[in-house]
């Protein structure tokens, strides 16, 4: 039965009996409710059917509150919002009255009577009351509205997370079931993998809790979670699983079929997504190339006829065009969200050792005289052993800190956006140096007189100081991730083949490291040593996933770790992981290949825009500037056209054309990268197009 069913059927599935007071008529026993729960809660508690949808959303959001408690708190927050709005409104009214703005108010109505004169005599009082009322109502109603609909946002976020990770979770459950785990143990292991599978792990935890704490059987637990999950895909999956359990089918075969089915669905969804992006690329040409050029040409021609169009062109270049590009980028990001794998990090390495500024402070604290190094956790142990542990951790902290200082760029390679913390102050310093040395003057007059050098030194060069390192580190990280994405599925196949022949997993890793090359060989060697020395397969695999930093590989490592721990058929688990990883990366590669031509569409669109504005600058504005420099301006007497070249602001138009090309270069590059991969991948295109735009205006 689908969620689309309505009325009593849906309410019975959801469990309407959870409400302690189900009353059809308002007012029934409200006095008793008020004595027990107070005014606010009693009002909502007496009307449960009216707020049934809110209770359902609260449960789906795992909010941990009943609808009456949540609404009562929302009502108190709204009352606080009314009070705060009234105080703020009175303060605004007092400031307006002190500035004399209230005294200048006049009667906007045609009616003239005693009431009007009375209000005019006390206009400050009435104006203050009106302003306070408006602010109080706005803030109070706004607080209530946000609180009432906030669970809907949480539910929507959980739904997206479940839909993204569900195919990976199904493969994970298939590997565990193939290894011999029963269904409850499978959901238990999935529930313990929240850092890998996100919200779907919380759904699995709810299934386990239904069985272990509430004493329900598996069929009832699955049905209860099915009625509460916010994801229709997960609901359909549980419906199919309930059908298998009801008919006595093989759950392992069901998981295998579902994994293949979701892979086919992913291919179909990706094809639909590519078709949508093809349409959006055509919209890009119309919205950001043809339309701006049409408006620019029309405004320039109108200025030649005497119209003042500088304000409209300024708004187009500095406001409308950037906002439209940002909106288009948000649209692309929203459409691409189902295909973006969230980051997974296990924090397995350097257990007990701090990171960041905490590590630096710990090293300084350990070095202080008279301060004993402290262990990472307060555990009951002998004083001598505790001292040794503290000394060992102090030594590890110094080692980690020395390693970080020995390779200061490692943080930027792992998190490229952190480079902005260094390059942004450097860019400001570069701009200040240009201003101090007189290379560029940060005034509008200087911009009009020398637009190209002023824009280049004050904006373009500092911007490149930020973008070039950021793009470089990002491309380096992306190439490394693609390297592992390309090589690792084959490595898993090698491991599976070696294990089928009786080779232990750590020896198979040694063989794979010798057969591999580059960073993959180094990481496989580290993983082999970690397994041999520490005898902890799960931690070793998770540490390997942290070092590689590829989300899909992190899920694969979790699958292998739990599969190896639960099954003696390690080769089967490795084979499942290899096949799933290969298919997922194949989908990603096909998507990037299909989207690559759209980059050419965006770049060509920018070049057309640049060509037109450069021609307008050289073939249109230059002759007008020469005509304005002559003692007498030619007229068109006899032609009947009132052309006025003296009214054309040539210098302003030149600067605006240049800035329009710069905005187009930045936006087009980022959008091209977002179409093919991600926004940061488009920075290299933005840098190239920005240099081309400046060179075109400087040389032509």
From TrEMBL:
<keyword id="KW-1003">Cell membrane</keyword>
<feature type="transmembrane region" description="Helical">
    <location>
        <begin position="75"/>
        <end position="97"/>
    </location>
</feature>
<keyword id="KW-0472">Membrane</keyword>
<keyword id="KW-0812">Transmembrane</keyword>
<feature type="domain" description="Type II secretion system protein GspF">
    <location>
        <begin position="493"/>
        <end position="615"/>
    </location>
</feature>
<dbReference type="InterPro" id="IPR056569">
    <property type="entry name" value="ArlJ-like"/>
</dbReference>
<feature type="transmembrane region" description="Helical">
    <location>
        <begin position="417"/>
        <end position="436"/>
    </location>
</feature>
<feature type="transmembrane region" description="Helical">
    <location>
        <begin position="595"/>
        <end position="616"/>
    </location>
</feature>
<dbReference type="GO" id="GO:0005886">
    <property type="term" value="C:plasma membrane"/>
</dbReference>
<keyword id="KW-1133">Transmembrane helix</keyword>
<feature type="transmembrane region" description="Helical">
    <location>
        <begin position="456"/>
        <end position="473"/>
    </location>
</feature>
<dbReference type="Pfam" id="PF00482">
    <property type="entry name" value="T2SSF"/>
</dbReference>
<feature type="domain" description="Type II secretion system protein GspF">
    <location>
        <begin position="173"/>
        <end position="298"/>
    </location>
</feature>
<feature type="transmembrane region" description="Helical">
    <location>
        <begin position="313"/>
        <end position="332"/>
    </location>
</feature>
<feature type="transmembrane region" description="Helical">
    <location>
        <begin position="682"/>
        <end position="699"/>
    </location>
</feature>
<feature type="transmembrane region" description="Helical">
    <location>
        <begin position="283"/>
        <end position="307"/>
    </location>
</feature>
<protein>
    <submittedName>
        <fullName>Type II secretion system F family protein</fullName>
    </submittedName>
</protein>
<feature type="transmembrane region" description="Helical">
    <location>
        <begin position="655"/>
        <end position="675"/>
    </location>
</feature>
<feature type="transmembrane region" description="Helical">
    <location>
        <begin position="125"/>
        <end position="146"/>
    </location>
</feature>
<dbReference type="InterPro" id="IPR018076">
    <property type="entry name" value="T2SS_GspF_dom"/>
</dbReference>
């Amino acid at each position: 039965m689908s969620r689309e069913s309505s009325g009593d059927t849906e309410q019975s599935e959801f469990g309407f009996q959870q409400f302690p007071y189900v009353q059809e008529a308002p007012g029934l026993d409200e006095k008793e409710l008020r004595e027990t729960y107070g005014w606010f809660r009693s009002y909502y508690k007496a009307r449960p059917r009216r707020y049934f949808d809110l209770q359902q959303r609260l449960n789906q959001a795992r909010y941990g509150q009943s609808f009456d408690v949540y609404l009562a708190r929302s009502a108190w927050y709204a009352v606080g919002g009314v009070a705060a709005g009234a105080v703020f409104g009175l303060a605004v009214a007092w400031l307006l009255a002190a500035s004399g703005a209230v005294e200048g108010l006049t009667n906007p109505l045609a009616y003239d009577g005693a009431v009007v004169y009375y209000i005019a005599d006390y206009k400050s009082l009435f104006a203050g009351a009106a302003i306070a009322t408006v602010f109080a109502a706005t803030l109070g109603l706004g607080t209530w509205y946000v609180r009432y609909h906030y669970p809907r946002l949480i539910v929507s976020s959980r739904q997206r997370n479940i839909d993204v990770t569900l195919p990976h979770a199904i493969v994970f459950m298939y590997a565990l079931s193939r290894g011999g785990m029963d269904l409850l143990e499978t959901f238990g292991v999935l529930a313990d993998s929240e850092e890998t599978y996100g919200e779907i792990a919380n759904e699995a935890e709810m299934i386990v809790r239904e069985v272990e704490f509430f004493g329900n059987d598996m069929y009832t637990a699955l049905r209860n979670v099915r009625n509460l999950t916010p994801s229709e895909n997960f609901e359909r999956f549980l419906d199919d699983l309930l059908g298998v359990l009801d008919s006595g089918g093989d759950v392992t075969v069901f998981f295998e079929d579902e994994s293949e089915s979701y892979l086919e669905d992913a291919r179909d969804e990706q094809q639909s997504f590519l078709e949508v992006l093809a349409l959006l690329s055509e919209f890009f040409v119309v919205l950001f190339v043809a339309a701006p050029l049409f408006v620019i040409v029309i405004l320039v021609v109108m200025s030649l006829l005497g119209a003042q169009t500088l304000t409209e062109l300024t708004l187009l270049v500095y406001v409308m065009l950037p906002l439209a590009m940002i909106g288009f980028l948000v649209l692309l990001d929203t459409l691409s969200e189902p295909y973006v794998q969230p980051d997974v990090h296990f924090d397995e390495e350097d257990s007990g050792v701090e990171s960041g500024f905490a590590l630096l402070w710990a090293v300084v604290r350990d070095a202080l005289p008279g301060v004993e190094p402290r262990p990472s956790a307060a555990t009951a142990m002998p004083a001598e052993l505790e001292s040794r542990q503290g000394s060992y951790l102090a030594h590890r902290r110094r080692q980690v800190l020395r390693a970080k200082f020995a390779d200061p760029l490692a943080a930027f390679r792992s998190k490229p956006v952190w480079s902005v913390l260094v390059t942004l102050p450097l860019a400001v310093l570069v701009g200040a140096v240009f201003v101090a040395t007189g290379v560029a003057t940060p005034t509008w007059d200087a911009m009009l007189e020398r637009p190209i050098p002023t824009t280049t030194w004050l904006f373009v060069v500092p911007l490149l100081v930020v973008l070039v390192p950021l793009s470089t580190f990002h491309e380096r990280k992306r190439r490394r991730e693609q390297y592992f994405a390309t090589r690792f599925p084959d490595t898993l196949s090698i491991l599976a083949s070696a294990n089928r022949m009786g080779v232990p997993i750590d020896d198979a890793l040694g063989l794979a490291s010798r057969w591999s090359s580059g960073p993959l060989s180094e990481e496989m060697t580290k993983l082999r040593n970690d397994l041999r020395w520490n005898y902890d397969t799960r931690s070793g695999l998770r540490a390997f996933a942290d070092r590689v930093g590829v989300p899909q590989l992190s899920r694969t490592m979790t699958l292998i770790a739990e599969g190896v721990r639960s099954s003696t058929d390690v080769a089967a688990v490795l084979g499942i992981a290899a096949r799933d990883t290969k298919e997922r990366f194949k989908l990603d590669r096909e998507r990037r290949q299909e989207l690559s031509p759209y980059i050419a569409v965006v770049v060509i669109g920018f070049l057309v825009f640049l060509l037109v504005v450069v021609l307008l600058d050289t073939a249109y504005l230059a002759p007008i500037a020469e005509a304005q420099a002559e003692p007498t301006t030619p007229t068109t007497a006899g032609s009947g056209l009132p052309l006025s070249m003296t009214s054309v602001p040539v210098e302003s138009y030149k600067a605006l054309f240049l800035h329009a090309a710069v905005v187009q270069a930045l936006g087009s590059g980022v959008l091209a990268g977002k179409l093919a991969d991600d926004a940061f991948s488009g920075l290299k295109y933005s840098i190239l197009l920005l240099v081309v735009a400046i060179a075109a205006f400087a040389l032509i």
